[in-house]
Design goal:
Layout: H1 13-30, H2 41-55, E1 61-65, H3 71-78, E2 82-87, H4 90-100, E3 105-108, E4 121-127, H5 136-146, E5 147-159, H6 165-181, H7 190-197, H8 208-217, E6 222-226, H9 229-237, H10 241-246, E7 251-258
Parallel strand pairs: 1-2, 1-4, 2-3, 4-5
Antiparallel strand pairs: 5-7, 6-7
The structure holds S-adenosylmethionine.
Length: about 260
């Protein structure tokens, strides 16, 4: 069970406060940005397929770590899972609660310091959290602890720091197209973003290989890729051209780790 411990003092207290403030400032417009809210039946079906690949077809007790506005929770609920969702931003949580009411247990909590008992969940899922962690070793140990034996962790994430030359080209093309078409520019606090990302553990970028190695260190037995491209393809189909390009201008991946 989580509570509002997210503000308890700790080693990375001030950085965490800045990270929390940054995401809170983005809560209102978060769902409008490409790749965030589930925009079509095809995208929901792609998420369902990914979640079935990761967790099987039975209903499970699942923890959505850093649920944000509750979009992964939405996909989990659509498959009949029993969902607990945590985040440390009240602004994000308010949006998740407005969407799902009491269909999911939506709680304030720190994904690096869970208050749940050992072996509480059949499965854990987290999208776009790992790259922002301040203490991933502590987080992964916690996630391992609260999973039941045989339980699975699905991580959906990417490298939002490094781009290959081709990804750079695509990104520049996406910006050019957006400017020509008058597409919405989602302004974010770049100074705050740069200030926090400089201090993330994965400030040099997150990769599937590095994450897999760290999860293995944390005790996870089997680390396997999952097919996130199906989701990206579905997102592209309902996006404007510049957003469809933006979706492939960074490396995105999904990984499933199993607790033996
Ligand atoms: C990029 S958003 C992703 C939200 C959601 N998972 C999604 O994919 O739509 C990152 C989220 O992580 C949350 N977050 C970051 N660090 C956290 C932590 N240590 N504990 C709980 N939430 C955290 C932020 O408040 C924010 O809602």
């Amino acid at each position: 069970m989580q509570d509002t411990n997210a503000s308890s003092p700790g080693a990375n207290y001030s950085l965490k406060e800045e990270i929390r403030a940054y995401w809170s400032s983005r809560a209102a417009s978060f769902d409008q940005q490409v790749g965030h809210a589930i925009k079509s039946e095809a995208e929901l079906a792609a998420f369902q397929s990914l979640l079935r690949q990761a967790f099987g077809t039975e209903s499970r007790d699942v923890l959505d770590l850093a649920c944000g506005t509750g979009e992964i929770t939405r996909a989990l609920l659509s498959l009949g899972h029993k969902v607990t969702a945590i985040d440390f931003s009240d602004d994000m949580l308010a949006r998740a609660r407005a969407k799902h009411g009491d269909k999911a247990r939506i709680l304030s909590g720190d994904a690096e310091r869970l208050l749940d008992d050992d072996e509480s969940y059949d499965a854990l899922v987290t999208r776009h959290l790992v790259w922002t962690l301040t203490d991933p070793e502590a987080a992964f140990a916690e996630w391992f602890r609260v999973l039941k034996p045989g339980g699975r962790l699905l991580v959906i994430d990417g490298d939002w720091i490094n781009r290959s030359w081709i990804q750079n080209l695509i990104n520049r093309g996406a910006t050019w197209l957006r400017e020509r078409s008058g597409g919405t520019v989602h302004t974010t606090d770049k100074e705050a973003f740069d200030s926090i990302t400089r201090r993330f553990f994965f400030r040099g970028g997150l990769s599937y290989e590095r994450l897999g190695a760290m999860l293995h260190e944390a005790g996870f037995a089997r680390i396997e890729p999952a097919d996130y491209r199906q989701v990206v393809r579905a997102q592209q189909r309902s996006a404007a051209l510049h957003d469809a390009l933006r979706l492939v201008s960074s490396t995105r991946f999904a990984l499933v780790a199993t607790k033996a």
